[in-house]
Amino acid sequence: MKDYKYKIKRLIRITIKNSLWVWMLAIFVQSSFPAITGGPPSFPHFDKVMHFLIYAILGGLTVLRFSGFYFPFILGSAFGLSDEIHQLFVPSRSFDLLDLAADIVGVIAGILVTRFIIRKINK
Questions:
Q1: How many domains does the chain have?
Q2: What's the domain range around 42?
């Protein structure tokens, strides 16, 4: 029974740690499609809020995969920059500094919230 619990915990740990790469792939694939125009956004700067939330999740997953603050911050921010550069080559998309700013602020928020939660759990 003890071996079974260990295997389940190990599987959960591996799944959480590798979900970062799946999330990064999902962001890359989604940003590879042309932008959708005229749709559901019901308030100004809806896209910036979405960038913030998507990259907050990325920041949280990054800190679960790699400990500390600086490496997850650099990795998440560099990925946001590479995604904006990637969009230069996608029809109807463009590089947007405000999107990049929302990405970076999202990464920071995700890292800080996840670290806070981890500290509360480990107390």
A1: 1
A2: 19-122
Distance of alpha carbon 114 from alpha carbon 82, whole angstroms = 23
Tell me the C-alpha distance between 92 and 60, whole Å: 30
> What is the separation of C-alpha 117 from the centre of its chain, rounded to a whole number of angstroms?
17
Residue 1: inside a domain, yes or no?
no
In the chain, what are the helix, strand and coil shares in percent, each to the nearest 5? 75, 0, 25
Its sign, for the CA torsion 101, 106, 107, 113, is positive
The answer to whether position 86 is within a domain reads yes
pLDDT tens per residue across span 99-111: 999 999 999 999 9
Full-model pTM:
0.86
87 lies in some domain: yes
Indicate whether 14 belongs to any domain: no
